[in-house]
Write a structure and sequence with these properties.
With 496 residues, this protein is of the alpha+beta class. The chain is 54% helix and 6% strand. The strands form three sheets. The chain has a four-stranded mixed β-sheet with strand order 3-2-5-6. A two-stranded antiparallel ribbon has the order 1-4. The protein has a two-stranded antiparallel sheet with strand order 7-8. Strand 7 and strand 8 form a beta hairpin. Helix 8 runs antiparallel to helix 9 and helix 9 packs across helix 11.
Length: 496
């Protein structure tokens, strides 16, 4: 085989996204709060960009710092390196002499005492610092920290205490062991026998909250039973031997195996509802984030629904006239290049934000025009709608519609909704009318809510009931939506 080098020329077409296009797509996809943060960051980074609504053009001493830095960097390249060298003739003796001369000019004790802050000022500063610290939000206690505090009160040896701390760290957020006990002992690698590990686990299972340290749901529920609890013995049998049957609502089967009456089993199950299957969840910190709408829909006097973009808290950006004037009046080449680059960046940002408003308004208006019945009559009148339909109407690509509605919220007279809420497929009724899947779910929920709980509808019966309302559906479709809505099967819904 012969290897050689050669040069060839060929023509090809490639589609590349320009930086300006990429920035425009990023700005379009940003939700309201993220857009605010992006603009605030740009205002800090770009000296030529100002907020026309709240800011005035600052003085040169405040806004020209970056310009001076650019000028200094340009001149530093032309600086002779010899001027930056330290004179090698200055030795350590000269340094000590200079320090001695400086000491002579040091203020005397009386003057230094005058410059020291008074005791009252120190006290006031300390009080302010204490107030600030006391107002700082404390970090909530975790489940592991809470268990470790209790575990240290046990008089265990250092070896067992170390393994117990390791075991507590292996509990998940539910308070259960993440692996089997033999696996944890093997990974731990210390001189811990199986009996010692069981003893340490038993200590942990006696900690608060009850049910922690369990290896599965059954053990967690059994650990929470106390002798004072009503139906204690019955619950121990039901949880220990028939937990799966309870989950599947097989009460007659449990009654035959245990000899308990169904009424007694139902009473015990009511008491069982006071047990916590996830005792560690109460220590979880779940932050609730406020949703800020990007759009608002209002009804005009003529009855038409109009979409408005909410931008009252978004800064009104403009380019500083001072830097435009500097370009016209002439500056050195390095400064000119720096200012021009910053101005171009500011223009791109302003145009991207304006394009975002325009695209978002047009996309949202097309959605509202299609879902007028939803706004006027309620969620049960939502219509099937796909993003491609909106893209064809607005004359943009479907990916642009996807970016425009991503994580965007709209304020309506019926509440606050994500824009994606108005999209969805559908089916046809027996009369040929299009109906959204959201309406199918509402009707399915109504049928199940009104069924006879002694004889709940099977999935086949639900298909028949939906057909009576004009919705011809397959059994697998009904089953799929029933599971999506977390509705149990007919056996589990039955009441004895």
């Amino acid at each position: 085989m012969q290897l050689n080098f050669s040069q060839q020329m060929k023509m090809s077409q490639q589609m590349k996204l320009a930086p300006r296009m990429i920035q425009s797509m990023e700005i379009l996809q940003l939700p309201y709060m993220a857009l605010q943060e992006r603009i605030e960051q740009e205002l800090e980074d770009n000296v030529t960009l100002i907020d026309d609504g709240t800011k005035k053009e600052e003085s040169e001493t405040e806004r020209d710092i970056e310009i001076e830095k650019a000028r200094e960097e340009a001149t530093e390249k032309q600086t002779d390196e010899k001027e930056l060298l330290v004179d090698s003739d200055h030795g350590n003796d000269d340094d000590f002499e200079r320090l001695s001369e400086m000491a002579k000019d040091w203020p005397d004790d009386d003057f230094a005492a005058e410059m020291r802050p008074s005791a009252n000022r120190i006290s006031d500063a300390s009080d302010r610092h204490t107030d600030m610290i006391s107002n700082v939000e404390t970090t909530p206690q975790t489940l592991h920290d809470y268990l470790l505090e209790q575990f240290h009160f046990f008089g265990l040896s250092a070896e067992l205490r170390s393994f117990g701390e390791y075991l507590i760290q292996n509990l998940d957020h539910h308070g259960r062991l993440q692996s089997s006990l033999p696996e944890i002992v093997q990974v731990y690698g210390g001189p811990i026998s199986h009996d010692q590990a069981l003893d340490v686990l038993d200590h942990i299972q006696h900690l608060d909250p009850p049910g922690v340290g369990a290896r599965d749901l059954k053990e967690s529920l059994l650990l929470q039973l106390t002798p004072e609890m009503m139906y204690h013995d019955i619950l121990a049998v039901l949880i220990g031997d028939h937990l799966d049957d309870l989950g599947n609502n097989r009460l007659p089967l449990i009654a035959r195996k245990t000899g308990y009456s169904i009424d007694l089993i139902k009473d015990a199950m009511e008491e069982m509802r006071h047990l916590d299957p996830f005792p560690g969840r109460k220590f979880e910190v779940r932050l609730v984030q406020n949703v800020t709408p990007d759009l608002e829909v209002v009804q005009e006097d003529d009855g038409k629904w109009t979409v408005k973009v909410i931008d009252e808290y978004v800064p009104d950006l403009k380019i500083s006239r001072k830097y435009i004037s500097m370009l016209r009046n002439g500056v050195d080449e390095a400064t000119k290049e720096y200012i021009k680059k910053k101005i171009d960046s500011a223009k791109w940002l302003i145009e991207s934000i304006e394009q975002r408003y325009s695209t978002l308004r047009r996309v949202a208006q097309a959605i509202v025009d299609h879902q007028t019945a939803f706004l006027e009559s309620g969620p049960e009148f939502i219509q099937p709608l796909k993003m491609q339909q909106v893209a064809d109407q607005v004359k943009v690509h479907v990916t642009t519609v996807s970016r425009a509605v991503d994580d965007k919220w709209i304020q309506t007279p019926r509440g606050l909704f994500p824009l994606k809420r108005f999209f969805g497929g559908g089916t046809k009724t027996s009369s040929g009318e299009d109906v959204a899947w959201g309406i199918i779910r509402i009707k399915l929920q109504e049928i199940i809510d009104n069924e006879d709980k002694d004889k709940p509808y099977s999935d086949d019966a639900l298909v028949a009931e939906m057909a009576k309302l004009g919705y011809e559906l397959a059994r697998r479709t009904v089953t799929k939506y029933r599971k999506k809505m977390n509705i149990p099967s007919s056996r589990q819904r039955r009441q004895y």
